[in-house]
Specification:
Blueprint (H helix, E strand, L loop, with lengths): L14 H22 L4 H28 L5 H24 L4 H32 L3
Helix pairs in contact: 1-2, 1-4, 2-3, 3-4
């Protein structure tokens, strides 16, 4: 079973951003599955690097879109992005310093909590901003 199921309420209305959100959810679900199968340290390390890169690139796209539309809550939204990237870097550092893979299994849950919370709050506000801007 997937850790995060895509729901239309997660959509913000920018096709390129929504497409990437769906891709990140697929990747988080893949990580969750791999963590339950006792992966090798190299697999976990590679996956952590890949998910950090993917999320970082996505945030850059989303922030670019928000700057171009003069989004009034860009700074707050960007700060939330930075918190997640810091957390992923901390997890990567902890993983490299620890022989136990137990905490790596927590990553899926931590990502799920962050993403669903972010979608419900920050992205929902961005969605409302876009709808108001379009007059709908």
């Amino acid at each position: 079973m997937a850790l995060i199921e895509w729901r239309e309420e997660f959509s913000i209305g920018i096709p390129s951003v929504d497409y990437e959100h769906k891709g990140m959810i697929r990747m988080i679900n893949q990580l969750h599955e791999e963590m339950s199968a006792a992966p090798s340290r190299d697999t976990v390390s590679d996956f952590l690097g890949e998910i950090h890169s993917l999320i970082s690139a996505h945030f850059a796209l989303e922030e670019k879109e928000m700057r171009e539309m003069a989004y009034d809550a860009l700074d707050d939204h960007k700060d939330d992005h930075e918190r997640l990237l810091d957390e992923i870097r901390d997890i990567m550092d902890d993983f490299e310093a620890d022989d136990s893979a137990d905490f790596a299994a927590e990553l899926g849950g931590r990502l799920e909590a962050w993403f669903t919370g972010h979608f419900r709050t920050k992205d929902a506000r961005l969605h409302r901003f876009l709808k108001d801007r379009e007059g709908g």
